[in-house]
Amino acid sequence: MKQIITIAAILVVSSAASPAFAQDSKPFHGPWVAANIGYDVFDADGSDEEDGSSEDGIAYGVSLGYDYNFGNFVVGVEGEIGDSSVSASETDVLEAGDELALKAGRDLYAGIRLGVPVSDTLLIYAKGGYTNQRFNLEYTLGGETESEGDNIDGYRLGAGAEVALGKAFGRLEYRYSDYGAFSDTDLETNRHQVMLTAGLRF
Fold it and tell me: Which coarse location class applies to the principal site listed for this UniProt protein (predicted)?
């Protein structure tokens, strides 16, 4: 009899607590993890505007973060590791007739996100932060090629929209990353990306 009363008490408490828990839950709130894929345009521009080069390809990676919903706005932190299929090249960089080819390697990002909930299922946001890009370089002059790699610090700015689908979510995002000059050359590097994201909140 005591066991039955105990079980009944647990059920009553559970049923009373469940609605309260549901009311406390918020959209766009809590830890999340996601996969990203999208269109990537990599630019490498020299001091002469006519020497610029641009290539496009596919960017992909994984990201995670934590969002806090204050009601009228959402603040979050996020990190990402990615890679890309694109590269760019330019001639007459250091000497006449030479060629410098750059391929984007792994990309690390850490930043913040600020959003405004339009509804319980739609968030409009902007983002910004630090990015560290691995570049692989090949320099060719007179038929001889030298290769090396370098990590370059830069910044990233972006904006997008997030749609909540229960614990799952999807995002469409544009972002611009600027890495400045590569090594001791005048080759300025930056990229434009349009990314699709699919993720899950916990």
Answer: membrane
Terminal Cα distance for the chain, rounded: 39
CATH of 27-201, one of 3.20.20.70, 3.10.20.740, 2.40.160.20, 3.30.360.10: 2.40.160.20
pLDDT at position 187 is 67
Going by C-beta distance under 8 Å and a sequence separation of 6 or more, which residues neighbour residue 64? 31, 32, 33, 34, 78, 79, 80
Domain ranges in the chain?
27-201
Give the closest residue to 131 by CA, choosing from 72, 86, 190, 53. Answer: 190
**Tokens read off for 85:** 């299929």
The pLDDT tens digits of the residues spanning 99-143 come to 888 788 899 999 999 999 999 999 999 999 999 999 888 889 888
Amino acid present at 82: G
> In this model, does residue 19 exceed pLDDT 50?
no
* Closest among 171, 194, 78 to 129, alpha carbons compared: 78
Q: What is the CA radius of gyration of the chain?
A: 24
Model pLDDT, residue 51:
52
What residues pair up with 155 in beta bridges, in sequence order?
A: 130, 178
- Tell me the β-bridge partners of 128: 112, 157
Q: Which amino acid, residue 130? A: Y
pLDDT at 139: 87
